[in-house]
Amino acid sequence: MSTGTDNSRTTHAVQSLIHLLKTRSYEEIRQRMYDNPPGTVWWSACKTELDVRNGEQMASAALGSARVVEKMKATSERLEGSSDKLLQSTAEIAEMLKGTRETGRRVEIATYVMVAVAVLQLFYIAFQLAGKK
After folding, report:
1. How many angstroms from the chain centroid is the CA of residue 41?
2. What are phi and psi of 22, to 5 degrees?
């Protein structure tokens, strides 16, 4: 029966020490833990407090990582949308350039026709003038 009482006292002592250690620095708690042999009340309290702090840091890091992953996902989605818009714009510009090329060919043919008509008219005028002389 004294074992249960001793265990209760030890648990109470550990909890009291953990409460005391909440205000101490990480380094101080580690030093106290290493100054006491494993299994002692101080060692158990220090180990428990360090485990709690490490767990809190891991939870905070996991939360931060989750936030970063969400931001990366949102950024990737925006980038994918921008890439789709860029691809669509590039296709539209390529289509416009194709139309411009076809229009350029038509203008080139029209220019040749106009030059040919002008040359023909010059010959016609020259023959008219040569015929009157």
Report:
1. 48
2. -60, -30
Q: Exposed (0-12), middle (13-18) or buried (19+): which is 29, by Cβ within 10 Å?
A: buried
Q: Percent of the chain having pLDDT more than 90? A: 58
**The model's pTM:** 0.54
Q: What is the DSSP string of 55-104?
A: HHHHHHHHHHHHHHHHHHHHHHHHHHHHHHHHHHHHHHHHHHHHHHHHHH
Interval 88-113: pLDDT, tens:
999 999 999 999 999 999 999 999 99
| Dist CA 83 CA 44 (whole Å) | 57
In the structure encoding, which two tokens stand for residue 50, read together?
Answer: 């360090």
| Structural tokens at position 123 | 């010959």
